[in-house]
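ok so i was messing around last nite and threw this chain in just to see what happens. nothing serious, just curious
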Amino acid sequence: MQKNTLLIIFASVIALSTGFFVRSLSVQDQQSASIPALEISLPDVLGKQRQLSEWQGKIRIINFWATWCPPCLKEIPEFIKLQTEFKNNNLQFIGIAIEDQTTVKEYLNNNPVNYPMLIGGDKAIALSQQLGNIVNAVPFSLIINQQGQIIHRQPGELSREKIIEIIAALF
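result:
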């Protein structure tokens, strides 16, 4: 009887371990499945259609923002500095405004940036939700590795320290 009990326990442990392993593969597949959502096209502030795949192969930090959002505006100067510091390390910031072209263009005329700003309007809100913004936070940022995998989602403000902590391992 003891041998049978030990055999059952051993078989249960193996089955449980296999279940956890299969589930981890399933989670990885789900994360990979969300990557094609990044194959979107949005206009920049001049109206030219841009695709996020233009920057494929780079570490991309995609930031959903608005001109009426104080934490968003607080992040932008730091993003500008980081874009300059790490441009030779294939780091690319991309802003996606959840507003109209006129409002964003006026803001950028007075506050120039050194990275692309795309105009998403209401479409950007839905896109951020599809990409994991379950609390509808603004700002909302994604960090995407060189292989196109989302490796970090940040509802709310994204600090310089957090960015460097995440991207340092990717260089």
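not much to say yet. The mean pLDDT is 84.
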